[in-house]
Amino acid sequence: MDPINILVAINLFLTISANFSGAKTGLKTSITKVIERPDTYLQKWPPNISAIILLISILGVFGIGTFNASQMENYNVIRIVGLVLFVIFSWLQIFAYKSLGKNYAQDIVIKKEHELVTSGVFKVVRHPQYISQLLSDLGLGLALLSYVVTPLVIIVEIPLFIARALLEEKMLLKHFGDKYINYKKHSGFIVPFIG
To answer: Would strands 110-111 and 34-36 be described as parallel, antiparallel, or unpaired?
Structure first.
């Protein structure tokens, strides 16, 4: 098996394992009392697309849905850059989820005792989990030379996650008011200090 694919497989296993506790916590929001949970396609589509990308990527580790790596030696620099993006941003995403603590939810919700998190990576970016997901998945597609994952991220996942983040912005602004307005002045939307 290709060495980059082996490194991808190892990081996939480690990050899935590390994110297991976050997934359990996020599922609890379905039984937790929430103040607001909008009924929108943005609740299910972005996570489902991410799950599909994960499944396609697992197949990609075994060469399914990818260009033949041995015939694409000229693209090793792109593959290594993709691997670095994948590793860094998959772990940054887990760090962002864990930083949210009890405020983390897989759904777009405002919980009964919701707190505005403005520390750690949230000090500079309001939606680090989304930019991390996008860059991690894009890096994964590049590392595997996947002709399925990379276009899926660019064409489908990016617009969905931006729309989801915009919906969260509206809800947080409604719930936290001036506190959220002030927070927005000192942080970026999904890129540090921009937006």
So the answer is: antiparallel
